[in-house]
Amino acid sequence: MANLDPTGWGAAQRDARLAALLDAARDGSPLYRRRMGKAQRLQELEPVTKGELMRGFDDWATDRCITLQGASAFLADTDKVADGWLGRYLLWTSSGTSGTPAIFVQDAASLAAYDAIDSLRLRGGAPGTSMWGLGRSFAYVGAVGGHFAGLASVQRLRRLAVPPLAPRLQVFSVGMPLADLAAGLQTMSPQVLVTYPSCAVALASLQAAGELQLGLDEIWLGGEQLSATQRQTVVAAFGCQVRNNYGASECYSMACECAQGRLHLNSDWVILETLDSRGNPVAPGEDAHTVALTNLANRTQPLLRYRLTDRVRYCSVACACGSRFPAIEVEGRADDTLSLPAAQDRRVQLLPLALETVLEEEGGLTQFQLVQRSDHALELRLGQGTANPAAAFARAAAALHAFLQRHGVHKVQIVHGHQHPRSDARSGKLRRIIGWTDNRAPPAKPAAARPRATRGT
Ligand SMILES: [Zn+2]
Prior knowledge:
Helix content: 25-40%
Distance between the termini: 27 Å
Number of domains: 3
CATH class of the largest domain: Alpha Beta
CATH architecture of the largest domain: 3-Layer(aba) Sandwich
Radius of gyration: 22 Å
Bound molecules: zinc ion
Strand content: 15-25%
Number of strands: 20
Largest sheet: 9 strands, mixed
CATH superfamily of the largest domain: ANL, N-terminal domain
Shape: globular
């Protein structure tokens, strides 16, 4: 069974790390001590949700100095991204995609593990090479303005890397108008672009049209699911290698892509259990009812059998690359890039991650769904538990209007949806940004190719 293969590659390291993690959680985390009771094995624990951990935050970590009040006060200052907290921790927050934003505390050991995995496995295991090395220049295009995992990690590397990375690594906001982003990238002319699939696809359309002329060596993608079509679009436009990986705020480096384009689980540092509705492991190739993550790298804020919202399947056929790490397939969320009319008969592309960041960070929402109803109307649905919905809608709509204005979109009405966010009838997935196609309504006039994206963190 792929979930906890007793003889598989990395099993010895995995088992030793798991034993140490269970001991650390039992000894130092009141929350996990209660949950574990007399349980000796990981499989005896009930999977835990993000909400449960956040409600018990002060009892969760194994360092009793870690409190919700202290962490929240630190996180309120967005100038402190990647600063050390309590002199020894890196903090980042997850998005509120499953309704509850969470705070994750990274200790030195977990960061060292993520660094090592990224350097070795994203580089294909080539010895003696650092992924950030070789004197290359890097453009990171991601969510900014908060303590997000991607931004915090990049800013930390800018400070720590030897030789200094800061002059060679520039950060761009994914919320910039695409034309401004393209101009900034063109001026910088990076050799490596690090971003989300939806952003790479939007930039690829400019590159294919000759409006962008980047000479990239590599594109590193993460944070969203990468479809085969998206990969083809990006490779065709930029003509360079694409490296995909799978991580989350809960565990920054879960799986790395091989030369065959398959994701291989870092099973010596991560346990991903695919379970049926009774908590038993499902066979490779089968869909799971619950995906439970155990992060073996972090003993300060333990994550044992944590319920992930992504869908994960173990592949039933061995990967042709020969890697002994198990190949997995991941379905993240399926959010769309919106295409809206702007001045002078232009259309602008609005990336799902940019829209979600605005609605969360400036709009103050955690549970929402934005549905494109026409070229001139967006419906914003609020979660069932939203306090004072009228005021919450007004604040979020104002933030969204301001964002649209910055992108040159001036004639779009935002209406308060009567429904709450709804899952897709076919896939069961809850998408937060829904564009035309899945509204079953044709655009008023043919739109430019509408990139489609899903997002993983
Ligand atoms: Zn492979």
